[in-house]
Request: fold
Amino acid sequence: MARQALGKGLGALIMKKQENTNTPPVNIVAESDRVIQAKVKDIKASPFQPRRRFDEQQIEELANSIRERGLIQPLVVRKVNGVYELIAGERRLRAVTSLGQTTVKVVIHEATDQEVAELALIENLQRADLTPLEEAEQYRLLQERFGMKQETIAQHVGKSRAVIANMIRLLDLAPSVRELLDQQQITVGHAKVLLQLKETDQQTNAALRVARGTLTVRQTEQLVRDVLNPSVPVPKVTPTLPPAYERVCSQLSNDFGTKVNISMKGKNNGVIEIPYAGREDLVRILQIFGISESI
Reply:
């Protein structure tokens, strides 16, 4: 099944339809929007900016470009309590500020808090600017502050509901493990496996072993099994599934955020096993299926 284009649905957010749904949101403005020269000091950062870290070298390069060619793309702002609040273009604002410019061209756009949060998320996703945790935090903001369902968020950003659910789960990691993920010492794949460890100390120690030993995701799965079942020897399993089945297991494991197994009972029948670690994990998996029963 083909995935939705990233950012589909932005036309409804900013009141103007575009044929190309992959156009960055800062390029899509309504006919009623005004373009003016605003004072740089009168523009404040958006409280809904999901990105916490900015690459200073990239900002310096952007500043050099603006110095040579000027600001080609205006900032997008909205007016809040008499001041301009940034919707899109924080790197451009930082670059202009570093050049000592006192005014900058802006597009004034009317937008609600929810629209600004969505626009900020989609703009950064299109440019691959967010870390996994920054992305997860913005999904949770849309879910908790604005009451958006995971399915709705998935439609707006062009990803599956399972991806949204699994990204939000990363926020349950222990603080030290989140730091390792932010520093790219472990991957999202490692993190999903480590989430099976509910005790902070266990999760932290396992994550450090993964980082120091540069363990693969599969080796991390074995490590977690050993931690959860210290007295039960885990037999070595020789893969017997056909390659196509192995690929299906890998895809399902990624979608559900847990190791999914296929056991072949015969030539044309078998069992798909989706394990879960505790009640919360079971509820999460059921939600992916669209089941909201109380357990």
In short: DSSP finds 13 helices and seven strands in the chain. The longest helix spans residues 56-69. Confidence is low (pLDDT under 50) at residues 1-28. The two ends are 31 Å apart (CA to CA).
